[in-house]
Amino acid sequence: MNDVRDRSHRLNRANGIARHGRLRHRHPLSTAMQVLSGVAAVALVSSASVAAIAAKQVTDDLGEGVQIQGQAAPKAKGATALSSYKGGFNMLVVGTDNDPEQGTAYGERDATLNDVNILLHVSADHTNATAVSIPRDLITPIPGCQKPDGSGTTPAMAAQPINSAWGEGGLNCVVQTVQGLTGLPVQYSAAVSFNGVIEMSNAIGGVPVCVAQPIHDRYTGLDLSQGTTTLQGDQALAFLRSRHGVGDGSDLGRISSQQVFLSSLLRTVKSNDTLTSPTTLYKLARAAASNMQLSQSLNDIGTMVQMGRALQDLPLAQVNFVQYPGTTGGTGVYAGKVQPSTELATQLFTKIKADQSFSLGADSTGIGSESAASAGQPASSAPAAGSAAAPTTPAAAPSAPAAAAPSAAQTSAATAPSDTIDGLQGQSADQQTCSKAFGS
Fold first, then answer.
1. Are 231 and 405 in contact (CB under 8 A)?
2. How many Å is the Cα radius of gyration of the chain?
3. What is the pLDDT of residues 289-321, one digit of tens each?
4. CA 115 to CA 232: how far, in whole Å?
5. If we measure between CA atoms, which residue out of 253, 421, 429 comes closest to residue 345?
6. Nearest 10 degrees: CA dihedral of 439, 370, 237, 327?
7. Region of residue 344 (phi > 0: left; psi between -120 and 50: alpha; otherwise: beta)
8. Rounded Cα gap, residues 7 and 1, in angstroms
């Protein structure tokens, strides 16, 4: 009997079978969980690797950043700074009209001007924000600025159009000029070229824009039919550049038309989860890093991520796009230019410095835009999810009924609501508006 067992044991070993006790049956659920755990682990490692590669690519595109007078080079936060930005901040976005890489695609220019200047203020508690568009022809002092090549300082000038600041000292000089004009410190700044506008509009898949009448502008090639069109690429750039096709053909008309685009842009970004989509954020980051000059303070992925998260939960009704107060028709140095309305500007920047939200008076949209309801158009895009908790203007409705427009006597300081700045032109981000064609 022992011989039989020995022969059987030797046969099993020869066949590669080891019998060291009874094998336990593996439960199907346990096996599945182990497989899923393995897949999850691989996915996490892969995601981290992809994120690291993407961050490296964006960082390589950033370059050294522009040094701004009075700002020390910051310590980089790195790509892992995923918390929201702490406190409030001011950021200046400058649009330039000339770039060596664009050649003569948009006409020949003998100088580069900062034709778009938008100062964004976000309150310390991230509950409200204001974007102030400064007219390119606004007359203001230009301070002495360090030259970009470090060869000295440019002479200060008492009264010049603000769009001449770039020629005096690039992004740094525009920052110094805006700080002097507004009394606000500008912690972050960026300059974007024509190509940058094209690439960034492509990155988010376009912006739906409403026009009240057909717009034709032979200078920019813009040709839009009445209604809502999703703009991106060259068409988005043509719309933002169009001056002869909107309002009264002036830069002031173009600003209010641009605010139609900007408000829809913010609604689009918040409604399609752009700020929480790694893929879209990566596209935006690459577009920005490749086509923008960033101040050293902004030249860090971690900082940009934190600022984006601060913007994520802003209620649309508490975001205002306004024009720096100014008038035309002046004389002397103001002839043919824009003269600052100092009293109204003081009201605006007092609110901003105090982090106080404010509303705009009736019929405040400006000469290049009007409410979607007045234009007989449906809402161009829906407010972002979650914004309904804040008091909002109903979609496709004017910010206030026409019959409620106050008279001159009613708008005196004694009777005007303390949170309303009457006479200030602009709109809130939740307000549905349409661009007006030239001469309409």
1. no
2. 28
3. 778 889 999 888 778 878 877 887 789 999 999
4. 20
5. 421
6. 70
7. alpha
8. 10
Q: How far apart are CA 56 and CA 122, in angstroms?
A: 28
Q: Can you give the chain as a three-state secondary structure string?
A: CHHHHHHHHHHHHHCCCCCCCCCCCCCHHHHHHHHHHHHHHHHHHHHHHHHHHHHHHHHHHHCCCECCCCCCCCCCCCCCCCCCCCCCEEEEEEEECCCHHHCCCCCCCCCCCEEEEEEEEECCCCCCEEEEECCCCEEEEECCCECCCCCCECCCEEEEEHHHHHHHHHHHHHHHHHHHHHCCCCCEEEEECHHHHHHHHHHCCCEEEEECCCEEECCCCEEECCEEEEECHHHHHHHHHCCCCECCCCHHHHHHHHHHHHHHHHHHHHHCCHHHCHHHHHHHHHHHHHHEEEECCCCCHHHHHHHHHHHHCCCHHHEEEEECCEECCCCHHHCCCEEECHHHHHHHHHHHHCCCCCEECCCCCCCCEEECCCCCCCCCCCCCCCHHHCCCCCCCCCCCCHHHCCCCCCCCCCCCCCCEECCCCEEECCCCEEECECCC
Other C-beta atoms lying within 10 Å of the C-beta of residue 149 = 8
pLDDT tens per residue across span 112-127: 889 899 999 999 999 9
Structure token digits, residue 78? 């790195």
pLDDT of residue 413 exceeding 50, the answer is no
> Residue type at 15?
N
Nearest to 440, CA basis, from 345, 389, 375: 375
What pTM was estimated for this model as a whole?
0.78
Q: How does pLDDT run across 378-404, given as a tens digit for each residue? A: 764 444 333 333 333 333 333 333 333
- The owner of tokens 């310590």 is 75
- Measured over all CA atoms, what is the biggest interatomic distance in the chain, rounded to whole angstroms? 124
- Between strands 319-323 and 129-133, the pairing is parallel
Task: Give the separation between CA 411 and CA 416, rounded to whole angstroms.
Answer: 5
Tell me how far apart the alpha carbons of residues 161 and 177 are, in angstroms, rounded to a whole number: 11
CA triple 278-279-282, angle to 5 deg: 80
